């Protein structure tokens, strides 16, 4: 077993490393050998780690893109917004303690408003009830608790829990960040986390594998962020769906461990299951610097498990020469609209996008490493040496308390403040819409540039007119200093107050601090050995937390005459279905969070957002309002079926008793009208691989029948019939 070593600089953190938070490389090797012998072919790295965690490596059917794998992840991580529902579900399971090492991370509920210390204190006061619930539930059920101010979940995982060969699931889209340390880290829904915490094998559709071969060397203004910005431009927001993206090739060694994490983090924006890099000396150095030298030593002994086999097969290959890669900036309104930084000014002028950069924002889980902050600070120093400060507003979000304390000690934070920056709390903040922005009015057209991962409409500041672009922290800093998208730092000059023209030199920064990391304040609460006597209280009058009631079982009949609630136009991501921002405070209250249902989706009937026709009254209203009206007044509206052209998060929907279906013929989407009623037939003979039929009933009396596909296996059909996976789990306990 590989046990996590103690960071000598942070003895207070000793308890965060649970004795069972280890990986048995011998078991991993045994499972890989069994699978390799069965498949009789070389394996990719992601296959080694995924198949190495199979519940039954000898008997599991393995076909990429087709079969469902039953896996045994090593641990679970939950951010505080999704942890609320996950812990409520775990409580309702009746189990006394989690079966695998698990942690809760308080990062989503802190709103950026004034500055780090003030915003953190305000969040503690506003969210006291939720933090108390999560801390007490963690203590009772054996879950570690990272307090508010500790940092962003993905940075904490990288610093403490990720390591080569581990399989971790996290209740956040950007959990793949851990792939930068050779881990398979996958973002899941809360119901999946509950399964793993309950000791039940976790199901994952066997991923395809996309290989990205890197050659050449990063240098100058080009950064690791540019790799994923380029890949996003190639694959688009759904090109990675159902696949793990595996980076390999000689160019890998020119990228730091935290740079690899940046690339894996934003893989979520191409729909990838996760992303991963092979183990190398960069990872070894990072492990040693973060107090895990013992893991590095054993990883070295087992390196053959932590790299792809020679001659392995990828379903698709993309090649990128890092020596030729130019700095990129993607957006607005989508993270796959890629532009070289050298072109963005002219492209913006052509499209009528605002050229003035109102705010530059660096940090977030994607780009808040020591190296990121150092490179941004090197540019700040150049500007300050010439008497310049940022023309745009400028914010800095440290990824963790350890990063915050270390950049304060080493002078980076001072440089970033002196150039005009405001250092925010160690939290998600503006990246997820937790930003009390006041410099522009809602509806005012403006441009911001960020080092974040997503830039969908209104995501950062709730203003649909904000044109948000994602790029590297270095480019954000340069554009914030210049104040315009028309500035290309590779070729253009800035003007100092004395009239001197000068160019910024390419950014520089140490990969890791020369001295050890400063751990900062102790923000971790380890659960007691026995929490059975502890109490977790949920106030029945609370508008933040609500104990769960079981969903109804399937009644054994087809679903008849279901009214279409909304037909969506264009993209329908998780941001459109249930955006974050101010709604995060209701993530532990199922009834209240339902008021956020599809309010960001565009109604195909009128091109409006959150404005749909109530078929019973003829009036227009918000999506949740109309849904509630239907629920109270018409029995035929009690069941809902979700249709999507490309449907992600299917397993989590299935676990809630929903019926996610896709069109056998995508063109059939056009046959459905906003005022139709739909019957789903064939449920009495519901079986794996057997399509269902939908009878579309139009308001003019005509009808059409179409075929719908599903990906349910036998176990998942039992979830549907029981009303939810949790209901089925309880049935099995009886």
UniProtKB/TrEMBL annotation:
The keyword Transit peptide applies. Residues 563-633 form the Aconitase A/isopropylmalate dehydratase small subunit swivel domain. It is found in: Mitochondrion. CDD domains: AcnA_Mitochondrial (cd01584). Its EC number is 4.2.1.3. Its main location: mitochondrion. Pfam families: Aconitase (PF00330), Aconitase_C (PF00694). It catalyses: citrate = D-threo-isocitrate. Binds 1 [4Fe-4S] cluster per subunit. Gene3D superfamilies: Aconitase, Domain 2 (3.40.1060.10), Aconitase, domain 3 (3.30.499.10), Aconitase, domain 4 (3.20.19.10). Residues 47-483 form the Aconitase/3-isopropylmalate dehydratase large subunit alpha/beta/alpha domain. Pathway: Carbohydrate metabolism; tricarboxylic acid cycle; isocitrate from oxaloacetate: step 2/2. GO terms for cellular component: cytosol; mitochondrion. One of its GO terms (biological process) is tricarboxylic acid cycle. InterPro entries: Acnase/IPM_dHydase_lsu_aba_1/3, Acoase/IPM_deHydtase_lsu_aba, Aconitase/3IPM_dehydase_swvl, Aconitase/IPM_isomerase, Aconitase_4Fe-4S_BS, Aconitase_4Fe-4S_dom, Aconitase_dom2, Aconitase_mito-like. Keywords: 4Fe-4S, Iron, Iron-sulfur, Lyase, Metal-binding, Mitochondrion, Transit peptide, Tricarboxylic acid cycle. Its cofactor is [4Fe-4S] cluster. Residues 496-516 are annotated as: Disordered. One of its GO terms (molecular function) is metal ion binding. Belongs to the aconitase/IPM isomerase family. Catalyzes the isomerization of citrate to isocitrate via cis-aconitate. This is Aconitate hydratase, mitochondrial. It comes from Cyprinus carpio (Common carp).
């Amino acid at each position: 077993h590989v046990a996590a070593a103690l960071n000598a600089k942070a003895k207070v953190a000793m308890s965060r490393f649970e004795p069972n938070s280890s990986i048995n490389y011998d078991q991993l090797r045994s499972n890989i050998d069994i699978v390799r012998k069965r498949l009789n072919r070389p394996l990719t790295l992601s296959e080694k780690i995924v198949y190495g965690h199979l519940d039954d490596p000898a008997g599991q059917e393995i076909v990429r893109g087709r079969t469902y794998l039953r896996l045994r992840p090593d641990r679970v991580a939950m951010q505080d917004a999704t942890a609320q529902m996950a812990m409520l579900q775990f409580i309702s399971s009746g189990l006394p303690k989690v079966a695998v090492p698990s942690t809760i991370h308080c990062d989503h509920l802190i709103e950026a408003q004034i500055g780090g210390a003030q915003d953190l204190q305000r969040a503690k006061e506003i969210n006291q009830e939720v933090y108390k619930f999560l801390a007490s539930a963690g203590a009772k059920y054996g879950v570690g608790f990272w307090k508010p101010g500790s940092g962003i979940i993905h940075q904490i995982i990288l610093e403490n829990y990720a390591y080569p060969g581990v399989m971790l699931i996290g209740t956040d889209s950007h959990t793949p960040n851990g792939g930068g340390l050779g881990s398979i880290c996958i973002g899941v829904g809360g119901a999946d986390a509950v399964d793993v915490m309950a000791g039940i094998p976790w199901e994952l559709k066997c991923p395809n594998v996309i290989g990205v071969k890197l050659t050449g060397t990063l240098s100058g203004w080009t950064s690791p962020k540019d790799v994923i910005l380029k890949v996003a431009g190639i694959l688009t927001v759904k090109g990675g769906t159902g696949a793990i993206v595996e980076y390999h090739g000689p160019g890998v060694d020119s990228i730091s461990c935290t740079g690899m994490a940046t690339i894996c983090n934003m893989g979520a924006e191409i729909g990838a299951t996760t992303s991963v890099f092979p183990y190398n000396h960069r990872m070894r150095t990072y492990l040693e610097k973060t107090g895990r030298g013992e893991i590095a030593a054993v990883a070295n002994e087992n390196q053959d498990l932590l790299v792809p086999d020679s001659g392995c097969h990828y379903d698709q290959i993309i090649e990128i020469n890092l020596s030729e890669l130019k700095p990129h900036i993607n957006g607005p309104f989508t993270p796959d609209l890629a532009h070289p930084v050298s072109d963005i000014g002219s492209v913006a002028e052509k499209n009528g996008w605002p050229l003035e950069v109102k705010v530059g924002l660096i940090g977030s889980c994607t780009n808040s490493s020591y190296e990121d902050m150092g490179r941004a600070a090197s540019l700040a120093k150049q500007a300050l040496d010439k008497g310049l400060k940022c023309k745009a507003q400028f914010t800095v979000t440290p990824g963790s308390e350890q990063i915050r304390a270390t950049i304060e000690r080493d002078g980076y934070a001072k440089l970033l403040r002196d150039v005009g920056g405001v250092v925010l709390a160690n939290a998600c903040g503006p990246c997820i819409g937790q930003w009390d922005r006041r410099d522009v009015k809602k509806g005012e057209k403006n441009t911001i540039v960020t080092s974040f991962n997503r830039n969908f409409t209104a995501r950062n500041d709730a203003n649909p007119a904000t044109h948000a672009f994602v790029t590297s922290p270095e480019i954000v800093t340069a554009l914030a200093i210049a104040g315009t998208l028309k500035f290309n730092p590779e070729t253009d000059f800035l003007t100092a107050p004395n009239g001197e023209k000068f160019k910024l030199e390419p950014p520089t920064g140490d990969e890791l601090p020369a001295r050890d990391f400063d751990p900062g304040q102790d923000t971790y609460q380890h659960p007691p050995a026995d929490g059975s006597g502890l109490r977790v209280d949920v106030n029945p009058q609370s508008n933040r937390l609500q104990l769960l009631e079981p969903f109804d079982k399937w009644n054994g009949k087809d679903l008849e005459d279901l009214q279409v609630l909304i037909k969506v136009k264009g993209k329908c991501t998780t941001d459109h279905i249930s955006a974050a921002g101010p709604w995060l405070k209701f993530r532990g209250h199922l009834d209240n969070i339902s008021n956020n249902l599809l309010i960001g989706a565009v109604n195909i009937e009128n091109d409006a957002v959150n404005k749909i026709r109530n078929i019973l009254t003829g009036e227009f209203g918000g999506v949740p309002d109309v849904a509630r009206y239907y629920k109270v007044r018409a029995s035929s509206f009690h069941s809902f079926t979700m249709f999507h052209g490309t449907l992600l998060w299917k397993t989590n929907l299935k676990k809630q008793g929903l019926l996610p279906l896709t069109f056998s013929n995508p063109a059939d989407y056009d046959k459905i009208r906003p005022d139709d009623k739909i019957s789903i037939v064939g449920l009495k003979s519901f079986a794996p691989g057997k399509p269902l039929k939908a009878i579309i009933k139009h308001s003019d009396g005509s009808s059409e029948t179409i075929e719908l596909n599903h990906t349910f296996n036998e176990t998942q059909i039992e979830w549907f019939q029981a009303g939810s996976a949790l209901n089925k789990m309880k049935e099995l306990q009886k």
